[in-house]
């Protein structure tokens, strides 16, 4: 019978956030001390703007909670549909913009129309380490630039609405994927009114953004990660290969990394140069002059907040002068802690039925293996079988259960295979979940991920390592098995392995069961995850203070300009 260890959340095991605050209160840098700098009076009126690309509404909602907690009035403008719903769910606002009891008082406005293609599958069609990937990049180096242009073409309605909204606010903060639409609205208003432009800040929800890295001086060191082209997996932040930096193998690896960096960086710069032409056409239509370097030009011109500082990125990551690099934001911490004092508060976060599955039914010590590959990855049938059948079979007798977050459309495609292998669901709700084998496998269609990770029940997180999943798992002290699909996920996976909080999942998920059992028995992996969680918590505290200082210092002087 395989032994499964329970991974404890350090915040819950020893008294929640209060324990960590006491533990680190005597450190040289006490991140829990209040900021002594003067605060704006009265409070600022802040407009946050998000796109509906996967994970972006959630990142903006976390920022909204932070700014609201700093005593400022916050309004979030989001495309209708899933984006606005995600923001409302995260900040605790009802569908009629009415704050829920005890929640943040944040207004959510539906602005424009939904424009993102739903569930873009980011999985590369070739092995990212191969020459085939390089030639695929040469043949089609523009997918990200094309996507941004398509998004901006669809954002004209939001642009018009923002020009009516912006004058009522002291400062505007927008996610990077929509910065040209928002910044164009700010610039257009300034020209029309012959007045200084409204203060505007660009939020980047991950530190590996290729546009940000490539948009600044060529004098920088070559970027460590180029996320939109295939070779990011060959760019670990340090040479951790067997034999070390000074051996022949280490030297060969260094040369290989530099080779791919130069090629990928050159292709990416060419792609964004081409994209800039379309951006200038759009600006001309809006009555604005050309913007040098196109989309990246906005990031050079405006102040930026970069989420995901240490420990989520290397400590020596180059940072441009207009960028404030801060730690990850933890919604649990923003709401006042992640430990639950009662079953009612636990049910509020998880939902009553999921809470009962995790904590009730006689399973007082249920160990949960949480599997989620994000909204942008579509699994193959073989990968689906590896999770739903082979992994469940490998865990027999271990006392562990599998909670699998899966889009309903993909779950429906995999259901015939699951029913054939496992029998019909023993319990189900067509709109929410299926349970197989008496609850040993539970498939949820929409999960409160951060609440699950902080539940104290999750022993391992099998993940694509999107940046949100990466930071949330690190903050919860949950070890990871990394199975990246594309974009920044390769870089996040490399960084998580360097930090010692993740192991690589087998290619194609072949042999997933043995890999999971091995990870569950890895004492060092569990211990390192707990240590990094404490560092991430302190980073988030410092980050919150830094975000507020940045926004306040930019907005306050502009309030007194006549």
Short descriptors:
562 residues; alpha/beta; Rossmann fold; 2 domains; 7-stranded parallel sheet; globular; disordered N terminus; UDP-glycosyltransferase activity; UDP-glycosyltransferase; UDP-glycosyltransferases domain-containing protein; transferase
Would you count the extended β strands for me? 15
CATH topology of the largest domain: Rossmann fold
Kindly state the percentage of residues in helix.
Answer: 40-55%
CATH class of the largest domain: Alpha Beta
Shape: globular
- Report the CATH architecture of the largest domain: 3-Layer(aba) Sandwich
Q: Order of strands in the sheet with the most strands?
A: 10-11-12-9-8-13-14-15
What number of structural domains do the residues give?
2
As a percent range, the share of strand residues is 5-15%
* SS element count, helices: 21
**Computed Rg:** 23 Å
Low-confidence residue ranges: 1-36, 94-102, 216-245, 331-348
Backbone structural class:
alpha/beta
Distance between the termini: 74 Å
Region (Disordered): 1-44
InterPro entries: UDP-glycosyltransferase, UDP_glucos_trans
GO molecular function: UDP-glycosyltransferase activity
Biased composition (Polar residues): 1-10
Would you kindly provide a written description of the structure presented here, covering whatever features stand out?
Residues 1-44 are annotated as: Disordered. Pfam families: UDPGT. By secondary structure, the protein is α/β, with parallel strands linked by helices. It folds into 2 domains: 41-117 and 146-233 and 269-331, Glycogen Phosphorylase B (Rossmann fold, 3-Layer(aba) Sandwich), CATH 3.40.50.2000; 338-535, 3-Layer(aba) Sandwich (Rossmann fold), CATH 3.40.50. Helices cover 45% and strands 12% of the residues. An 8-stranded mixed sheet has the order 10-11-12-9-8-13-14-15, sandwiched between helices. Strands 3-2-1-4-5-6-7 form a 7-stranded parallel sheet, with helices on both faces. Helix 3 (56-69) packs parallel to helix 4 (82-91) and helix 15 crosses helix 16 (408-422). The termini are far apart. Mean pLDDT is 74; it is low at 1-36, 94-102, 216-245 and 331-348.
